[in-house]
Amino acid sequence: MMEYIFQRRGAMSEQSIALWGRFEYQVTDVDDPRHFTDTELSATFTCGEESRTVWGFYNGNGQFILRFMPDIPGVWHYRISSNIPSQSPVEGTFTCVPETQLTGPVQRDGDGHFRYANGNAFYPFGTTAYVWNYQPDDIQQQTLASLAASPFNKIRMCVFPKHYRYNLQEPMRFPFPGTLDQGFDFTRFDTTFFAQLESQIQKLDELNIEVDLILFHPYDRWGFSAMSQETDRRYLRYVVARLASFKNIWWSLANEFDLLKEKPMSFWDAAIAQIKCEDPSSHMISIHNWHNPPIHYRSNAHWYDHHNPALTHASIQHHDMHFVPEWRQTFAKPIVIDECCYEGNVDLGWGNITGEKMTALFWHGVILGGYVTHGETYLNEDEIIWWSHGGTLKGASIPRIAFLRNILEEGQAKRLAPLPWGSHWDTSMGISCEGNWGLFYFGDHCPAYKMMTMLPENTAWKVDIIDTWAMTITPVAGVIQHGDKLDLPAKPWIALRLTKL
Q1: What residues form DSSP beta bridges with 128?
Q2: pTM above 0.90, yes or no
Q3: Among 3.40.50.920, 3.40.50.2000, 1.10.10.10, 3.20.20.80, what is the CATH number of 106-409?
């Protein structure tokens, strides 16, 4: 990645920056902690008719930094200004040049799917490791190695530490300077903490992993979930200013936002609007709900309204993928089930499903037109559990999820949409938008045959029988048409791949 970094006092010759690379401007002044609250650095970037407003941030030790990720090839003009008395406005240009090896940030693709900025399809196969970034270095290295060998291309992780069962260790550093015993200075940021966070995000980018960064959550003993609104606004500006130039960043306003009882709905409206306004790169934005199955199985009254046009997709916690078609129709935007339960064996109902069940949730969710996020909660003696700490992945679902991802990604992009169930209520059925490719899944049902009445009349199909657990694909001899009887293995976890002839 090409970067343009210069000091205010240095020469400002024109530079070339890769498309979706990073422009960075640095300026120094006398060190003063009041810079965090009182000093502003901002810029306007223009290229043709396009204009972007960018905020800088104070990095401590008298250093200010402003970053921008150009998203259009061509000549960009910029004007940088500040309320620092000793600094005059700076103007200049750089040329953004295409970079064929970079995919760019992920974007929404229509009402149901995602793509990279270069047009390539993106299928989110995510996982969750909430505070892996707070763990000792050896655990962080294990986490990165596990991710490198996994099928996961997105990770949900937090800015703030987490207080919960199995999460009682005190972190070494925090986003704000201070400790639990001595309290925190909410007028300053711990720049070393944020430098470490940037390094972790960059390492994930090198693994082609998107970072779904959770900005708030309720599992707290330090006071970060109950800061003043002024502190919240300043925190959001600081995080966006530091991280928006990373092409792999997503903004998740909160994990289980509705458990943050002291924050009214108007707070979330304002926070979403602030990020939308201050992120010059228009990264993905979502907000995630709590789910208690006995209370919430049919009710989404406690959800944030995903109709908000600033939200790029609906991030949902739910354990039943059969609602995905309804949510697609209701919200008219991509559906990501970011928590569907966890494969594991902890004594919490959300964290002890089998590998077979986790695999089935992925198949049902993807075929019905959504995307699903993995989670894992296997106990071990050191209580390093993937869901929170990262470490080493152990689950039986992981190679099966990789198998599904390979099926989706081979060949042309596959934009699945659900077929109506009709009499086939036992089967999840998805067909590509072109109508020439599909996946059907029977889950834990065990039919010995299927009457293929769901196929359009006067069409012919090549069919493969997929054992999603054994990870085998067996072609069916001949051609299958509307109404044909298709013999099946009479065992669970069977899927069909259909290709129109």
Answers
A1: 156
A2: yes
A3: 3.20.20.80
